[in-house]
Amino acid sequence: MPERDAISWTVMINGFVKKGRFDEALEWFREMQISGVEPDYVVIISVLAACANVGMLGLGLWIHQFVLKQDFSDNVRVSWNSIIVGFAISGFVEEALEYFKLMQNEGFKPDGISFIGALTACSHAGLIDDGLRYFDVMKRVYRISPRIEYYGCIVDLYSRAGRLEEALNVVETMSVKPNKVVLGSLLAACRTKGNVSLAERIMKYLVELDPDGDFNYVILANMYAAVGRWDGAGKIRRRMKGLGIQKKPGISSVEIDTGALETYEID
Question: Which Pfam family is one of this chain's hits (predicted)?
C-alpha cells in the first residue's frame, strides 16, 4: 500500500482519540486491519489509549503481543505502560501489578508512567502498604522525583481507605504545591466520610488556589446541612453571595424514545 494510505489512517485514528471518540477510533483501526495497512507506532499508542478508556482489554492485550513481535524495540516500554495503566484504570488490579512485574522481568525498567499505573492499581484495591512501597522504590531506587500526579495517587490511596488525616498530611508535606484537583478530590472524600472538620481545613487551601470556585463552597455547605449545622451552611452561602459567586447549574441528559438526548439544567 502507498505510504500516504498509512499516514491517512494514522491521522484519522489519532484524531478520533484526541477528541475522546474512542469507539470510532477502534472501528477505524479495525477497518485499517481489514485493508491490510500495517499500523505504525503512533497508531499503536492511540489504539492502546482508546482500549484503556473503553475497557477493551482483549484488544489491548492483542496489540501488546503484536508490538512485541514488531520492530518497535525502542518503543516497547510504551506498550508495557499502556497495558499497565489500562488495566489499572479499568479496575483490573492483579493484572496491572502482574504486568508491572513482568515488564521488569523482561528487562525493562519502570519509569514514571509505570509507577502511575502501579499506584493507581493499589489505590483501587486499597493496597496502602503496597502503594507506599512502590512510591518509596520509585524515589529511592529509580531516582524518580515525584510530581503532583504521584502525590495525587498517594492522596487518593489514603482517601479511598478513609485515612483522611494521613491524606491531608501528604498534601501539607509534599515537595510541590498542591493543586485544586488533588485538594478537590480530598474534599470530596471528606464529604463521603462526613468529616466536616477536615473539610474546613482543606477549604483554606482551596480558597487560596481557586477563590471563585463554586463547587468547593457548595460541597462544604451541603456537608454542614447534612449534619444539621445550618449556621455553617448559611455562613458559606452568605460568603458566596458576598464574593459574587453563584452556583453553576448542573447538566443532566436523558435518552428519549427517538434515541436523542434531552438536556436539562438542575440546581
Answer: PPR
At 263, which helix (H) or strand (E)?
A: strand 261-266
Given CA atoms 202, 203, 207, 212 in this order, what sign does their dihedral have? Answer: positive
**Which value, in Å, is the radius of gyration of the alpha carbons in the chain?**
22
- For 65-96, what is each residue's pLDDT tens digit? 776 666 555 566 777 887 787 778 667 899 88
Cell numbers that stand for 80 in this block = 508495557
Number of domains into which the chain is organized: 1
Q: At what angle do helices 148-160 and 112-125 cross, to 10 degrees?
A: 10
Average pLDDT over residues 53-62: 71
Q: Has residue 255 been placed in a domain?
A: no
- DSSP letter, residue 144: P
| H helix or E strand, kind and range, residue 147 | none
Supply φ then ψ for residue 253, to 5 degrees.
Answer: -120, 140
For residues 99 and 80, the answer to whether their CB atoms sit within 8 Å is: yes
In a domain, 267, yes or no: no
What's the CA gap between 249 and 135, in Å, rounded? Answer: 39
* 260: helix, strand or coil: coil
Closest CA to 156 of 145, 146, 170, 142: 170
As a whole-number percent, the residues of the chain with pLDDT over 70 amount to 76
On whether residue 89 sits in a domain, the answer given is no
- Residues pairing with 265 in the sheet: 251
pLDDT of residue 217: 74
